[in-house]
Amino acid sequence: MATRDAPDGASAPALPHEFPRRILLAALGLTPRRLTEALYALIVPVDGGPPFVPTAIHVVTTTRGRDRARRELLDPETGCFLRFCADYRLDPSRIAFDDESFIVVERDGRPLEDITTAADHAAAAEALVRLVRRLTTDDDAAIHASLAGGRRTMGLYLGHALSLYGRPQDRLSHVLVDPRFADHAFHYPPVPPATLVIRGRRVNTADARIILADVPFLRLRDELPLRVIDELPPPGVTGTRGSLAAATPTIELHLRRNLLIAGGETVHLPPANFAFYAVMARRCAQGRDFVNCRTPNLASEYLHEYTKVTADRWAPNVERVRHRLRNGADSKWFEQRKARVNRAIRIALGAWLGRPYLIASRGGWRDRRFGLAIDPAHISFPED
């Protein structure tokens, strides 16, 4: 992953314009000029910030949209993409934008000329989600997705895909064009400026303002495991290919197999952390109170579970743990076990799905206690 030096000398994630690969992604209909407007706003940001110069452009569209974009943007004689690069001193050979850049939506193996039916929309949604999923596997790439230029539903699907797979370096925006130029065959402010006659009025392109409005989006990538996200159906597709979570949180602890199953998902824990979670689960199943390092008999409860988990093969380990806890549990040991358990749950289930299974806290900071907030009836120890 691309990084930069933080003020303290540590490595920090790079800003979008610092990534070695920078992708402009758009869902276009029949207005190709929206792409060059977005490109202009990225190259010449009105806020004076650093330009985001794409190294590649990807366009999701129909056959009609592709053909029109080819004529208006890529035609060697009439296309404005090369003129744009010349005007703004960009090397077009360093921006991958050609016939291969167009991803035409297909349904049942047939490229779509237009998107008119519910099935067409579902195909467009799946194409966008699939493309964004692929592009975000590249840790050295930053994506800037533009909502301008396509049908409103295409913009919705693009935002949906970014919500599922978007990373910190990825952005979503909409292009705002000066109303005087919005309905004219205007692709970007040329160099040098030109005077146009629009609806009987003379306007100078030097006065045109093209702004990228940042569109915040919910990033689920860090909240859910990718395998769960991959099972979600695209918008517009009925039915589900997976379950987000069990309707009611359930826990199974197989002590002799050192196996924790939370909501049907396996969470891998080493014996020391598994035994700690077993203590919390056992107390919850028995309707007992939350605990902290000062709770009487906590060490003996832990040793009881740890002995079951390790069995006879790990007798030396049991003796080491018994020696470690000879004076009872302490705050360092307690915090370490709790933090490692919760981290493993978040890694396995994601922050959102894992939340019901985390070791939670109650009380004020002077007497904070910890435990599981799950219905005791849904906790089981099948091998007891």
Write the layout of secondary structure elements.
Layout: E1 3-5, E2 11-13, E3 21-27, H1 33-43, E4 56-61, H2 63-74, H3 81-87, E5 102-104, E6 106-107, E7 110-111, H4 118-135, E8 141-146, H5 152-165, E9 171-177, H6 179-182, E10 195-198, E11 201-204, E12 210-214, H7 226-231, E13 251-254, E14 259-262, E15 265-267, H8 271-285, H9 298-310, H10 315-324, H11 331-354, E16 360-362, E17 369-371, E18 379-380
Parallel strand pairs: 3-4, 3-8, 4-5, 8-9, 13-18
Antiparallel strand pairs: 1-2, 6-7, 9-12, 10-11, 13-14, 14-15, 16-17
Helix pairs in contact: 4-5, 8-9, 8-11, 9-10
Q: For the record, what is the CATH homologous superfamily label of the largest domain?
A: Hypothetical protein VC1899 like domain (Restriction endonuclease-like)
Ranges where pLDDT stays below 50 over 5 or more residues in a row are 238-246
Question: Mean pLDDT, rounded to whole units?
Answer: 88
Radius of gyration: 28 Å
| Count of domain modules | 2
Order of helices and strands: EEEHEHHEEEHEHEHEEEHEEEHHHHEEE
The percent range for helix content is: 25-40%
Q: Whole-Å distance between the termini?
A: 46 Å
The portion of residues forming beta strands comes to 15-25%
Give the structural class: alpha/beta
Structure description:
- There is one protein chain.
- The protein is of the alpha/beta class.
- The chain folds into 2 domains: 3-231, 3-Layer(aba) Sandwich (Rossmann fold), CATH 3.40.50; 251-380, no CATH class.
- 35% of the residues lie in helices and 18% in strands.
- The protein contains 11 helices and 18 strands.
- It has helices spanning 33-43, 63-74, 81-87, 118-135, 152-165, 179-182, 226-231, 271-285, 298-310, 315-324, 331-354, and strands at 3-5, 11-13, 21-27, 56-61, 102-104, 106-107, 110-111, 141-146, 171-177, 195-198, 201-204, 210-214, 251-254, 259-262, 265-267, 360-362, 369-371, 379-380.
- The strands form 6 sheets. Strands 5-4-3-8-9-12 form a 6-stranded mixed β-sheet, sandwiched between helices. The protein has a 4-stranded mixed β-sheet with strand order 15-14-13-18, with helices on one face.
- The longest helix has 24 residues, at 331-354.
- The radius of gyration is 28 Å and the shape is elongated.
- The model is unreliable at 238-246 (pLDDT under 50).
